Amino acid sequence: MKRTLVWLGIIVSQFSILDAATWILNGNGNWSVGANWDSGVAPGTGVDPAANFGSAITAARTVGIDGTFTLNTLSFDNAFSYTLEEVGMNVLTLNGTIDVLQGNHTIDAPINLAGNSSILVNGGASATLVDAISGSSILGKNGTGTLILGGNNTFNLLAFNEGIISISNGNQLGSGEVVFNGAATLVTTQTLERDKTLRMNNGTDAGTISVANGTTFTHSGLLLGSGNLVKTGGGIASFTNSLGFTGPINLQAGTLAAANFGGTETITMQGGTTFQPLDGFSSSRPITLAGNAAILVDGSASATIGGVISGSSILGKNGTGTLILGENNTFDLLAFNAGTISISNGNQLG
């Protein structure tokens, strides 16, 4: 049988699936030992390009990757955890898909992409890839579950189709673009920076950036596209090259900072959130207050909000910088806490 992976109408990978070799040892063991597999031969050595880690184990087990193995399919289907652990300097080569159907599983070995490949993680499951993923290829993330990346990865492009990806370092997203294609959430757990393009092709689906409390995600690469951008988490998401982004923004938690935005779509601010326009910001986007929220203009910065600010809520002005208001605003009350506000019309104060 032939299986085909497609991304944006382009064949991401195409490969044949033969009968998978299934792990049968209810214990720790090495991959290369044929007796540990139902086929009697270790997969990925030119015989079976597919390996299945299923129901054999009744507790967490470790499988030693004690050789170089090439696979089209690597699957996990057990509530107990498998850990595939590098023995020596060995690499797993993938030209196809990793499927995590249930459970929380870990691959602690380098992975080389020999062709465009994908990782499917079902809802409620997780996959942790500890080491680097290399290769001049596209990596797709499918399924509503969580993929935790740990290595300094160098694959070409990340097609983020659905689910969750968690990172602690900007290099974990690969050496090229990240493209949101559906309802997907990028979770950042540490303060980090990234200078590659982030493209929001997710349409009305929520393309979410969740930044851990007390941390900052600084994105200096291009922010492009017109998809629905959602910011969650108590931390700060800062986009310093975002004029090419024209989609709607829903600020649900924490702080969103930006050098600018293109387009005229609404910025919606939930209660307790902060929008921080950076120095030189000037946009005609309207802002809707869905709860009491604040605009922070820091230091000696100056920022212009040219769209209407509306909502039956309180707007706070924080920071020592200058906020220039440009429309007849209809928010309920202005809490003028610090800095300067510039107006040309009394109705601009709400």
Descriptive report:
By secondary structure, the protein is mainly beta. The protein has no helices and 40 strands. It has a 14-stranded parallel β-sheet, with no helix packed on it. Strand 1 and strand 2 form a beta hairpin. The radius of gyration is 24 Å and the shape is elongated. The relative contact order is 0.07.
Considering DSSP H and I runs of 4 or more, what fraction of the residues is helical? under 10%
Tally of contiguous helical segments: 0
Record the strand order, biggest sheet. Answer: 4-6-8-10-13-16-18-20-23-26-28-30-33-36
- Ends apart, CA distance between termini: 65 Å
Shape: elongated
Descriptive key words:
mainly beta, 14-stranded parallel sheet, twelve-stranded parallel sheet, elongated
Give a brief description.
This protein has 350 residues and is mainly β.
Which SSEs are present, and which pair or pack?
Layout: E1 2-7, E2 10-16, E3 21-22, E4 29-30, E5 50-53, E6 61-65, E7 69-77, E8 82-86, E9 92-102, E10 104-108, E11 111-113, E12 117-121, E13 126-129, E14 133-134, E15 138-142, E16 146-149, E17 157-160, E18 163-167, E19 178-180, E20 184-188, E21 192-194, E22 198-200, E23 206-211, E24 216-219, E25 223-225, E26 228-232, E27 236-239, E28 249-251, E29 255-258, E30 267-269, E31 274-277, E32 282-283, E33 287-289, E34 293-296, E35 302-305, E36 309-310, E37 314-318, E38 322-325, E39 333-336, E40 340-342
Parallel strand pairs: 3-5, 4-6, 5-7, 6-8, 7-9, 8-10, 9-11, 9-12, 10-13, 11-14, 12-15, 13-16, 15-17, 16-18, 17-19, 18-20, 19-22, 20-23, 21-24, 22-25, 23-26, 24-27, 26-28, 27-29, 28-30, 29-31, 30-33, 31-34, 32-35, 33-36, 34-37, 35-38, 37-39, 38-40
Antiparallel strand pairs: 1-2
